[in-house]
């Protein structure tokens, strides 16, 4: 399922990944390069399987761990109210 950030979330790419700002709370979230890849894949319309494939293609991570990591990140972004 594709991912969308709420209207109150700003993003900025950095040398180490992506920073998210929740403008409602003033809280910052920092995504490392693998988290950034997952988010960019989902924001581009990919689903979780696409994000897992992107992770395993870019980093030395097995399929099971990549699946757990993608699921956990998406859940955290949704629970925090950053993503829909």
SS content category: alpha+beta
Identify the strand order in the major beta sheet.
Answer: 1-2-3
Instruction: Give the overall shape.
Output: globular
Note the total helix count: 3
**Total strands:** 3
The profile of the biggest β sheet is: 3 strands, antiparallel
Quaternary structure annotation: single chain
Helix-strand string: EEEHHH
Query: How big a fraction of the residues is strand?
Result: 15-25%
Q: Mean pLDDT, as a whole number?
A: 94
- Which spans of ≥5 residues are poorly predicted at pLDDT below 50? none
Distance between the termini: 10 Å
Report the radius of gyration as a whole number of Å. Answer: 12 Å
Fraction of helical residues? 40-55%
Could you give a quick summary of the protein structure above?
With 84 residues, this protein is of the alpha+beta class. It has helices at residues 33-43, 48-58, 63-79; strands spanning 9-14, 17-22, 27-31. A 3-stranded antiparallel β-sheet has the order 1-2-3.
Walk me through this protein's architecture:
46% of the residues lie in helices and 20% in strands. The chain is built from three helices and three strands. It has helices spanning 33-43, 48-58, 63-79; strands at residues 9-14, 17-22, 27-31. β2 and β3 form a beta hairpin.
């Amino acid at each position: 399922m594709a991912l969308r950030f709420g209207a109150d979330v700003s993003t900025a790419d950095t040398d180490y990944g992506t920073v998210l700002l929740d403008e409602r709370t003033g809280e910052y979230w920092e995504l490392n390069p693998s988290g950034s890849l997952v988010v960019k894949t989902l924001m581009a319309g990919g689903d979780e399987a696409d994000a897992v494939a992107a992770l395993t293609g870019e980093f030395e991570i097995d399929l099971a761990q990549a699946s757990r990591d993608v699921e956990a990140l998406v859940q955290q972004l949704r629970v925090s109210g950053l993503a829909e």
